Amino acid sequence: MDTYTKRSMKNSKILLIALFLLGGVLLASCGAPLSGSSWPGVSSNGDTVYVAYMQHVYAVRAADGSMIWRFPEKAGRQMFFAAPVLADDQLLVGDYENVLHSLDPNTGVEKWLFAQAQADWIASPLVVGDVILAPNADHFLYALSKNGSLLWKFETGRALWAQPVSDGETVYQASMDHKVYAINIRDGQKLWSVDVGGAVIYSPALDAEEGTLYLTTLARNLMAINTRDGSIRWQRKFEGGMWTQPALKDGRLYLGDLQGMVYAISAADGTEVWSQKVDQPVTGKAAVLDSRVVFPTEDGSLIAMSLEGERLWSRTFEGKLYTGPVVIGDRLAVGIAGGKEFLKMVSLDGQDLWTFVPPK
What sequence ranges are listed for the domain Pyrrolo-quinoline quinone repeat (predicted)? Predict the structure, then answer.
């Protein structure tokens, strides 16, 4: 079997993970089924790391990796996948039993739940002011008050896997129906929609000042969209499939593809600034810091590059990385799938600081 065929098979297997997600199964490298929530969703407020993984949501001290609480205390039917979202005095997290939970971020006690959705919560919600914007796999974007009451809902053509973004007045929602929608945040009315030619499974990057959305599609396109009217400013086709959100910093977009290439792209016109081969599929959003960008790969590696494309360091974990690291000051929180440990904190040069081990 030649190298190209092997790479194509590997990339197809990674895409199948996404395609089977709604059915509640994921394909492991050995072909055995795993549960629908098979990699951790990680977020942080600086002092605490919140992790949604399998049958629990965990609050973990960022300083030392000790557990503060978990929800529920005893495992039940629900499975959690998307990264929790902290909004003032509540932590929002959806499950695979169609329920969106509001938890007390200090204690993990449930404050309220929203159970009107008809499918899984795959994407994280977004909080804008007093409005919770929650996309569901039942095709609807739900707008809720801070106490969980329904304000409005907006229907798209297919499942919503991407967290929305907003400039404070308009919410932009990407869908598996190949469209991006601009919606009035006050009343849920559509302002415009645009067909982007492929399913979108990751949240766009928004430059509100420039009025531009940047997104990748499963049709291997990276594109820039005018937020005023939905017109396409530019688009760029890649050879490798893309399973990542572009990371925007200082006029550049950093991203990788499933053929093991990483790129810096000009946000102004889509031209390539630099590219480097890392040999493994890039399967999550890069973390961009002041002097470096850190890419996650499917084989469980973090690869750090300078902002000009020079390779700085790499390290490999036991397991696989399907989401990017979360920057917490001068540290990186890493969610790991399929290994003995599912959450680690490392330094900016990749050295272990602590490993989270949940109590039995």
Answer: 141-236, 237-354
Residue 346: closest CA among 305, 297, 268, 294: 294
Is pLDDT larger for residue 257 or for residue 88? 257
Element spanning 190, H or E: strand 190-195
Q: Sorting pLDDT into bands at 50, 70 and 90, what band is 337? A: very high
| Numbered ranges of CATH 2.40.128.630 in the chain | 116-218
Please provide the CATH number assigned to the domain covering 116-218: 2.40.128.630
Look up the pTM and report it: 0.90
Q: What is the pLDDT of residue 241?
A: 86
- Tens of pLDDT along 338-357? 889 999 999 999 999 999 99
The 10 Å Cβ neighbour count of residue 304 is: 22
DSSP reduced 3-state for 354: strand
Query: 284 exposed, middle or buried (CB, 10 Å; 0-12, 13-18, 19+)?
Result: buried
Q: What is the DSSP string of 268-320?
A: TT--EEEEEE-SS-B-SPPEE-SSEEEEEBTTSEEEEEETTS-EEEEEE-SSB
pLDDT category of residue 38 using cuts at 50, 70 and 90: low
Asked if 23 and 119 touch (Cβ cutoff 8 Å), the reply is no
- CATH of the structural domain 38-113+333-340, one choice from 3.40.47.40, 2.60.120.10, 2.40.160.20, 2.40.10.480: 2.40.10.480
In the chain, which segments carry CATH 2.40.10.480?
Answer: 38-113+333-340
- Section 44-62 average pLDDT: 97
Mean pLDDT score of the chain:
90
Q: Comparing C-alpha atoms, which of 221, 156, 222, 223 is closest to residue 193?
A: 156
